[in-house]
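Annex B, item 7. Sequence and structure tokens for protein A, then protein B.
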Amino acid sequence: MLYSFATNQSTRVTDGIGSNESPAFAGNGRHIAFTSTRNGKQQIFTIARDGNDLRQITKEGNNGYPNWSR
């Protein structure tokens, strides 16, 4: 969920499948990297701020705590 202090509204970004945790916003604020168990093991995904363009970044092992490079 994203919360806007300007509008006092919450917006759901993910579809709620699996455990979606550890969000990290891109420097420009357009995308979010996060960990999810939606495919079994904990993997890193990215998604656009509006909830579109979901992409799985890692595929093997258990991965956590995503962070954008600077």
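Protein B:
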Amino acid sequence: METPDASPPPSDVASIDRAPPPLDIAALDITRPPGEDAATDADVAPDLTREQFCMGAGPPVVVGDRVMMSTRCIGRIAEAVFRHAICTCSDLGLAGYLYTDSFDSGGSGGSGERGGAVGVNGSLGLIGVMRIGDALTLAGTGPLRLVGAHTVRGDLSIQGNLEVVGVLDAERNARVRGSLLALGPFNVRGDLTTPPGSLPLGVIRVDGTRRTAPVDVAPPCACRPEEIFDVASAVNEARTRNDNAAVGLRTDVLSAVVGEVRVELPCGRFYIDQVAGLGSIALTVNGRTALFVGGDFNLGGFLDVRLGPMGEIDVFILGSITGAGYLRMGRVSRPSKVRFYIAGDRGFTLAGAAGFQGNVYAPRAPVTIAGFNEMRGSLFAGRVATAGDLTIHYDRSILRAGDDCPEPTTPGCSGCGAGVCRATQACVSGMCGMCRTDADCCAPTVCETRTGQCLPLPP
């Protein structure tokens, strides 16, 4: 993993520079913002100066969410939506090898550790093999047919039928609501649960207990209208509540990109009308920054975002990502600090080969992954399709994105999607608190009964 380029210390002036067109820019860095927002400025320490905040004091930016009728801290939102390496509101189509694992950019070193769950509200279409580093949850009723050797290192939960033609190893528990046929070996290291009346057939080895009980696989991704984060509301609010004037940033600065345009943003909340043009953008972020885009992201070239030592950025897009270019992000040593939130429903492509590093939230949009891709971060999308091999190294430190957030004034919760609990908390009887069993936790976290915390599987 490459080290991000060194950046100058935070400045109160946004610098913009135009350079000759390079045509191969491949880096992006984004995470959460600073400051102020919505209706509850009391949550943002009103006596805190902007300079103090930009040095790292105080909570990150809070944004209004009209869907949930609340003001939420961006870090808490990130904890809630980026729990899986891949989460899709409908289907996931794979025509190559799928590999997921995890690492912690704020703690442990390289990839290769257990983690990187996959959640699919619809069906999984797979031509190839998969090795999932954590749970695999399929809530759709479509059948899953597996040819070749496959591994799921967490829990396996399937709402439809399962047919194993090759080899399938489930390293924890397995639940299958539909029919189960194993023409090749299906090995379950934990318990296997199937519903009454089901007759599993084939080569099935269960190290734990075979259970007969009702099975209902809940959608793992928070995609109901009341659960989807209201990106549009956050962008519209930023039209009038932003720090553009303080740094002299024009709202049309990226409306007609030609060649390579270089933009340097200090700490703050900034609003621009749109991103459009045939060139590429080199964006340097030195502090805690949020960028709100009031239209589409329509760029013919690439977006290259580089974080300084204290840099982190969230990008909120009111429209969709369109145009001939790819959304390509690379050279990011802290993927959990890179987050895109997209309100639109038009599809876009993530570039292959060069790699992709960051977190993308696009619950209404179909996403195509072009070519062979190695990604560090996570992807939450309407649906995902790829025709090449896909490797995702999930950055577990995203589950601590809300560490600096203020405690909510009302500690109640209404589930994993719309709730306000921390990633390590359970939502029990409408209140955030300690877990007692895995069922209390939001998937794919599990309950650490000694501490009452919901945590990822031990690496």
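Comment on protein B: The chain has three domains: 15-80+225-345, 90-212, 426-455.
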